[in-house]
Write a structure and sequence with these properties.
Elements: H1 2-15, H2 24-30, E1 34-37, H3 39-42, E2 57-60, H4 68-80, E3 84-90, H5 97-111, E4 115-119, H6 133-138, H7 141-144, E5 149-154, H8 169-184, E6 188-195, H9 199-211, E7 218-223, H10 228-237, H11 244-251, H12 254-257, H13 264-276, E8 282-288, H14 293-302
Helix pairs in contact: 2-13, 4-5, 10-11
């Protein structure tokens, strides 16, 4: 069996076409990409400056159970290294207004945080007063503390936790409310999305928002290079919808089963569409580094994205 698998993999290496150099469209699409980390994954990175370009926006995912002190320490480290820090504020794990204000004050006092991703959060039952990101926005605290940028969650394939019937009615209603919020405040806002694997449904979703009068810029979620099994596990856990079939089809191809997934196809198609339609409302790429931050950062560089400037080279 081992010899057969090795033979198949060697055949794949010989027969696969030599990949083209990164196109200008892809390089342009990857400019100013953002990436997501968690405190426990950040701890494994010796120096982010060896991996990410200075000024990269780094989201810090707040998983239920992570102490706020760990979140703030990660934010302070990234800020000191020259990155734009954007921590998650998951409404359902924030007990009350006082807790929210304390978090904001800690982030600003220790890490000079001025931007945030506001979302409902992954838990089913709220821990306190908040159940959605609109309630967080309505507190006025982010304006009070001078936050310059607020991002909100988007779901190209819907969200069955919100719209249990598979529609997008409640999700889209929430986006319309947030569009209105952006128009009546000074906040710079954008939609940061869940990841998906197929370009055409993403394009259709983005166009549908624009036609509905929702013109907030979209930072499209893209799963970075990872083992196929890892990606399928995360995709199911995160509620990825129809585009999961891209991974399922790949899993049925024994010549690809043991090879890591790379987001080349979806990035290339979206970049080409953006180049042909400059007013397309997807403006940035946001990476979920499911196969590791270093792997993701190196893939971005190899495909035309901006390179890091290692700290020891300055």
């Amino acid at each position: 069996m081992k010899e057969m698998l090795m033979s198949l993999l060697n055949f794949r290496r010989k027969e696969a076409p030599v990949s083209d150099l990164p196109t200008p469209e892809v390089a342009d699409f990857l400019r100013d990409y953002s990436i997501e980390v968690m405190p426990r994954t950040a701890e494994k990175v010796e120096d982010f400056r060896d991996l990410l370009p200075e000024g990269t926006r780094v989201y810090i995912a707040h998983i239920d159970g992570t102490p706020i002190e760990d979140m703030v320490a990660t934010a302070a480290r990234l800020n000191a290294d020259g990155y734009k820090v954007m921590p998650h504020f998951p409404a359902r794990i924030i007990k009350d207004r006082a807790t929210l204000e304390n978090w904001i004050a800690m982030y600003q006092g220790e890490a000079d945080v001025r931007q945030a991703l506001l979302l409902a959060g992954g838990v089913t039952t709220p821990h306190g007063d908040f159940s959605d990101s609109m309630q967080l926005m309505d507190t006025g605290l982010f304006d009070k503390y001078g936050f310059e940028r607020l991002h909100i969650a988007g779901h190209p394939e819907g969200n069955r936790d919100i719209d249990t019937d598979g529609s997008r009615l409640r999700v889209d209603d929430a986006l319309r409310w947030k569009q209105g919020f952006s128009e009546r405040t000074d906040a710079k806002m954008a939609i940061a999305t869940q990841f998906a694997f197929e370009a055409q449904p993403i394009i259709e979703w983005a166009d549908s928002l624009k036609h509905a009068g929702i013109d907030l810029p979209i930072h499209i979620g893209i799963a970075g290079p990872a083992k196929l099994q890892t990606l399928i596990k995360f995709a199911i856990a995160c509620g990825v919808g129809p585009s999961l079939k891209v991974l399922q089809k790949r899993a049925m191809d024994v010549t690809k089963l043991l090879l890591p997934y790379e987001p080349t196809d979806v990035i290339t198609e979206l970049a080409a569409h953006k180049a042909a339609n400059p007013d397309f409302n997807i403006t940035h790429v946001h990476f979920f580094p499911l196969g590791g931050i270093k792997t993701n950062a190196n893939w971005a560089i190899e495909n035309g994205g901006p390179a890091a400037q290692p700290a020891n080279s300055v």
